Amino acid sequence: MSERESLKIATLAAQAADDKKAEDVVVLDMRDLTAEFDYLTICSVPTSTQLRAVIDEILERLEEEGISPARQEGRNRDSWVLLDYRSVIVHVFLTEERTYYSLEKLWADAKQVAWQ
């Protein structure tokens, strides 16, 4: 997948999450830090109901573009869901889970991408 396509997926996911009122939506450029994926989109929500709504919106928005995830993790849990689009990983957390795992600190060397 090209860098341009990966960036499109990451920003579409961020926009979809933002449209459903996700909080602290960030896109991190991971290309210089890992060979596993190009971008990481992270957001959080206060409730499990909103978590499901954000995930559904991301999936729907990307499906409209003909883009399906390679896998989903945590879909049956209410605190953290991961969507793997191969070159893009999307994390949607409950607020307290995001604070606990602190992925932005783990990947502190990643550059933030302007997606809005």
Protein model, in words:
The protein is of the alpha+beta class. The protein has a single domain, classed as 2-Layer Sandwich (Beta Polymerase, domain 2), CATH 3.30.460.10. Helix content is 39%, strand content 27%. It contains 4 helices and 6 strands, in the order H-E-E-H-E-E-E-H-H-E. The protein has helices spanning 3-19, 48-64, 95-101, 103-106, and strands at residues 23-29, 39-45, 71-73, 80-84, 88-94, 111-112. A 6-stranded mixed beta sheet has the order 3-4-5-2-1-6. Helix 1 packs across helix 2 (48-64). The longest helix is centred in the N-terminal third of the chain and has 17 residues, at 3-19. It is globular.
| Strand element count | 6
Sequence of secondary-structure elements: HEEHEEEHHE
Any idea what the CATH architecture is?
A: 2-Layer Sandwich
Strand content: 25-35%
The CATH superfamily is Beta Polymerase, domain 2
- Percent helix range: 25-40%
Query: What's the arrangement of strands in the largest beta sheet?
Result: 3-4-5-2-1-6
First-residue to last-residue Cα separation: 22 Å
Classified by CATH, the class is Alpha Beta
CATH topology name, in short, is: Beta Polymerase, domain 2
Total number of domains: 1
Global outline: globular
Which structural class matches the secondary elements?
Answer: alpha+beta
Largest sheet composition: 6 strands, mixed
Task: Compute the CA-based radius of gyration.
Answer: 13 Å
Count of alpha and pi helical runs? 4
Poorly predicted runs of 5 or more residues:
none
Mean pLDDT: 95
